[in-house]
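Structure (tokenized):
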């Protein structure tokens, strides 16, 4: 009678069962993305077709995903670097524009100050009333020709029709006939003093007009109480006769060499 051994829990599984379990385990590893080294007689005995497993496909897919992620990261970094470079360039451009504007404003301010200084000098400049002439009769000279007995101004040698200039900047307060002065002009200067130009043959300004230094205001002549053509010039503290001051000292005090 043949002896039959009972199957118990310690009975070794058949080869076909072990092979089935190994294949299932590898498939499970492939599904979870875990790479492991499995060595067993069953795996060694399988054919070449058995190596085309889900594990290999998962590894390849993982590499592709990693490459795509890296490429995306590189692209994002390139975009960030480009944006940073653009922002830096814009900031530099703003700084350069601000620096250029500041320099231009500084130049403009300097030019304005220089122009104002030139205008101030021009307005404060004084000239002789007759260019290239000389004093033919001095201040306070005595003669019966004048009602006061002395000369209240100075006479500049000038032929009839010689250009007469305003000695400085001011406003015309009188322009017309002045009795013994003939045709005359009185100008209130910007410093508050007055100048008078007498015996004119022609008047070229009107009351209220603003005049500048060296501006032509009249032509010399021989009108009024005169013995010949010349320009009578007076400097005064007020607009009326009798407020005269030394014209030579007045002009020299304003830089005119007479």
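Design, position by position:
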């Amino acid at each position: 009678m043949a002896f039959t051994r009972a199957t118990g829990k310690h009975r070794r599984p058949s080869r076909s069962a072990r092979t089935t379990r190994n294949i299932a385990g590898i498939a499970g590893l492939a599904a979870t993305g875990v790479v492991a080294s499995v060595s067993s007689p069953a795996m060694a005995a399988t054919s070449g077709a058995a190596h085309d497993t889900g594990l290999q496909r998962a590894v390849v897919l993982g590499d592709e995903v990693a490459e795509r992620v890296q490429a995306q990261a590189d692209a994002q970094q390139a975009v960030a670097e480009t944006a940073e470079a653009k922002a830096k360039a814009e900031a530099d451009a703003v700084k350069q524009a601000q620096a250029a504007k500041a320099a231009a404003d500084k130049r403009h301010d300097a030019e304005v100050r220089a122009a104002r200084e030139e205008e101030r000098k021009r307005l404060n400049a004084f000239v002789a009333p007759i260019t290239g002439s000389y004093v033919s009769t001095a201040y306070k000279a005595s003669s019966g020709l004048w009602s006061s007995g002395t000369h209240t101004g100075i006479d500049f040698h000038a032929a009839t029709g010689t250009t007469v200039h305003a000695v400085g900047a001011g406003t015309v307060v009188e322009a017309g006939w002045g009795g013994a002065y003939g045709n005359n002009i009185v100008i209130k200067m910007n410093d508050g003093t007055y100048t008078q130009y007498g015996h004119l043959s022609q008047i070229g300004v009107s009351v209220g007009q603003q005049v500048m230094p060296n501006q032509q205001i009249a032509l010399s002549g021989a009108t009024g109480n005169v013995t010949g053509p010349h320009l009578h010039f007076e400097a005064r503290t007020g607009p009326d006769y009798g407020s005269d001051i030394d014209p030579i000292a007045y002009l020299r005090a304003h830089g005119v060499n007479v």
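Reviewer-requested clarification: The helical segments are 15-32, 41-45, 54-124, 247-253. Strands lie at 135-137, 154-157, 163-165, 170-177, 183-189, 194-203, 210-211, 216-220, 230-236, 244-245.
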